[in-house]
């Protein structure tokens, strides 16, 4: 059975190469944040590229943070890549001080 992965699209990042890579190693990939996909996923990927403050603004505006926290609460895996990893921290001072997700 294929592992299910959801890739968060922040409209700032290159997700096509990540989708190809995950598919090549055996993941069934979905891009987006539909609740049914996230609930059924094994891993949630938060990819990189872009500005920290722009990414956090988009995350908050679209309540993506709530979906990420629900995913973690279900004891599912979360992978942050580049900027995606940085967003998991408390804050960043890139360009201006911006509060992050605060996962660590």
Total helices: the number is 5
Q: What is the share of helical residues?
A: 25-40%
Global shape: globular
**Main beta-sheet strand count, sense and barrel state:** 4 strands, parallel
Assembly annotation:
single chain
Radius of gyration: 13 Å
Structural class: alpha/beta
Number of strands: 6
Give the averaged pLDDT, no decimals.
90
Unreliable segments of 5+ consecutive residues? none
Kindly estimate the percentage of residues that lie in beta strands according to DSSP.
15-25%
Give the strand line-up of the largest sheet.
2-1-3-4
**Terminal Cα span:** 32 Å
What pattern of helices and strands is seen along the backbone?
EHEHEHHEHEE
Outline the fold blueprint.
Elements: E1 3-7, H1 16-24, E2 27-31, H2 35-40, E3 43-46, H3 52-61, H4 64-73, E4 77-80, H5 83-86, E5 91-92, E6 98-99
Parallel strand pairs: 1-2, 1-3, 3-4
Antiparallel strand pairs: 5-6
Task: Describe the structure using short key phrases.
6 strands, alpha/beta, two-stranded antiparallel sheet, 104 residues
Characterise the protein shown here.
The protein is an alpha/beta fold and 104 residues long. Helix content is 38%, strand content 21%. The chain has helices at residues 16-24, 35-40, 52-61, 64-73, 83-86; strands spanning 3-7, 27-31, 43-46, 77-80, 91-92, 98-99. The strands form two sheets. The chain has a four-stranded parallel sheet with strand order 2-1-3-4, with helices on both faces. Strands 5-6 form a two-stranded antiparallel sheet. Strand 1, helix 1 and strand 2 (27-31) form a beta-alpha-beta unit. The longest helix is centred in the middle third of the chain and has 10 residues, at 52-61.
């Amino acid at each position: 059975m294929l592992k299910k992965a959801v890739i968060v699209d922040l409209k700032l990042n290159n997700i096509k190469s990540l989708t190809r890579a995950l598919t090549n190693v055996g993941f069934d990939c979905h891009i987006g944040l539909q609740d049914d996909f996230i609930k059924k996923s094994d891993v949630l990927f938060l990819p990189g590229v872009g500005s920290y403050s722009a990414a956090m603004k988009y995350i908050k505006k679209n309540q993506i943070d709530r979906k990420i926290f629900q995913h973690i609460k279900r004891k599912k895996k979360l992978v942050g890549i580049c900027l995606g990893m940085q967003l998991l921290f408390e804050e960043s001072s890139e360009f201006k001080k911006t509060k992050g997700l605060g996962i660590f």
